[in-house]
Amino acid sequence: MLIPHERQLPPPNAGAMDTALRPAMPADTEAVGRMLARSYRALLADDYEPALLREALPLISVARPGLISCGTYYLIEQEDRVLAAGGWTDVSPHGAPGRAGVGHLRHLATDPLVARCGYGSRLLGQVIQSARAAGITELRCQSTLTAVPFHAAHGLTVVGEIDVRLPTGVLFPAVQMRWLDDGD
What pLDDT is attached to residue 95? Predict the structure, then answer.
């Protein structure tokens, strides 16, 4: 039996002809939020305790309108379904102004039904290209435990383990990572 949303999903390794990569717009906020919720609920389950996820998911899976409309947040979509989204800002995830040349990877996620099909890699490539074009030579990332191997495969290095304090005071284990522009 097909689940209705599965009909729209591309096959693994589908080409760019089937999907569009574009900057996100305010009208995408709800669709990005739905994808973040699907992604985090499914993909984080192996690395985080269920009780922690019950508390954290309502907080971390919210699409931030300011981030979506910043001009450096992108999505990959097929028809009206967001398959992946993510971007960068020169402001930290906690709202602190950044240093010149330093950016922050933000809310990079893939729909679990197309995980490991290349959409995250394609998206991260766009994000890095955009950051480089803006003069960013270092990208910092507060990676979920689940995403560390993905980020490491794309040139980010581990700085150390951290706990991200969520607005309710919940501490969410993560890994601080960074990418340095080597000119390639």
Answer: 78
Q: What is the SS3 assignment for the chain?
A: CCCHHHHHCCCCCCCHHHCEEEECCHHHHHHHHHHHHHHHHHHCCCCCCHHHHHHHHHHHCCCCHHHHCCCCEEEEEECCEEEEEEEEECECCCCCECCCCEEEEEEEEECHHHCCCCHHHHHHHHHHHHHHHCCCCEEEEEECCCCHHHHHHCCCEEEEEEEEECCCCCEEEEEEEEEECCCC
**pTM, entire model:** 0.87
| Residue 150, C-beta contacts closer than 8 angstroms, at least 6 positions apart | 120
Closest CA relative to residue 9, chosen from 109, 121, 84, 66: 84
- The pLDDT, as a whole number, for residue 167 is 92
Residue with tokens 């979920």: 144
